[in-house]
Amino acid sequence: MLQKQILNTENAPAAIGPYNQAVKAGGTLYVSGQIPLIPETMELVNTGVADETHQVLRNVQAILEHAGYTLDDVVKASIFIADMADFATINEVYSQYFQQNQPARECVAVKTLPKNVNVEISVIAWKAE
């Protein structure tokens, strides 16, 4: 029987709602959407969309590592942005983290994101158990 395992780490921002940082089911890890919160202070990075994207991906990476996964294990990424004009900048930063064997993904502009941030990213990772 497939059981789910709840995963949370102090190396990524604590959940700001009724959810967990990640849930593992079998070899699949579902990482909740991350925004540019600094884990130690829970303050937002607000020095531009490139810096926000780096922080978001560092948060994603910390959760993956806590669960025993890497960015290479990511099979799907979902990117939510507040302004499609930021797409090129976000994509440039994203490509620094996913350099080869990039996951499938979508990028959608939304009206508003939590705490009025410019970018949020969630991922699904998989590896054989």
From TrEMBL:
It holds the Pfam family Ribonuc_L-PSP. One of its GO terms (molecular function) is deaminase activity. InterPro entries: RidA (IPR006056), RutC-like_sf (IPR035959), YjgF/YER057c/UK114 (IPR006175). It comes from the Bacteria. GO terms for cellular component: cytosol. NCBIfam families: Rid family detoxifying hydrolase. Belongs to the RutC family. This is 2-iminobutanoate/2-iminopropanoate deaminase.
